[in-house]
Structure of EamA domain-containing protein:
Amino acid sequence: FGIMWAPEGHAATVAGLGTALISPLLMTVGFIIWDKYWEGSAFTLNVFKCGLASSLFLLVILFTSGRAEPFDPDVFTPDAVSALVSSAFIGITVGDVAWLGALQMIGARRVILIDTLKPFLAALMGLIFLDETFTFALGSGIALVSIGVLVVSLEEEAFSPPPPEDDELDHSRLRDNPSTRSLDPEAAAGVPTHTQAVAMQSRRKLGQGYALAVCNVVLDTYGSFLTKKYGEGLSPWDICLVRFGSAFLTMVGITVGYRLLTCLPVPGLQGRSAAWCTMPSTMTPVAWTRISAG
């Protein structure tokens, strides 16, 4: 969005480069804070994030518009607004839930690694749909940054399960010991040992997390493509207000609708848990402050 603030020419280039360099740093810091302090679901984090962000964007628009009309109907056309709402649903409502879900499953470092695919996909979509040029210098720059993130992210992570209780440990040793394995009825029946079950669960969790991260790459890039194509004439604040605000309202509507359905005699839904759309109640004010800063 830096180019949209600056005049044309060299100043626009400098502003765009500066914004492009600062944005990943800020995103990474926020990512780490959310990964460390958030105690709820990915959906509720997305609701909180969008609600807070859209409120801040609205305040900025109201305080910086001066005497000018803050929401010019000649700029906020039905086509532009509908395209931004669609991009918000694709990239934020669905894409960011997948993104934050992947964060909880595989951690910030692995998600950031998968995120390095976004510049390549964005450049490809710009080349195909917006007639943008994909130069050798651009491709080399994206590749160098991605390789740097890859090298850092390939550092071995310990993915060890929590230590089992004493009785579980003794039972696991009994099944893992070839000399006593035949004494264990579960082992004789081909049931996986405790260690094998934990390893299978960890691999399944990693696979689901990577799938969500890749899903976010596709959805977020397409949402950004729609924003760039139809957001001309709108300021960054206007675009972010429409996108985050509409995503927030959509997720609030989903939450209210789901809670109403669980109260009605709907087969398969009545009495079901609403934990996935309930804000965490155990977080301290300090933790909420940190999440807000993130």
Remarks:
- Confidence is low (pLDDT under 50) at residues 1-7, 158-166.
- The radius of gyration is 24 Å.
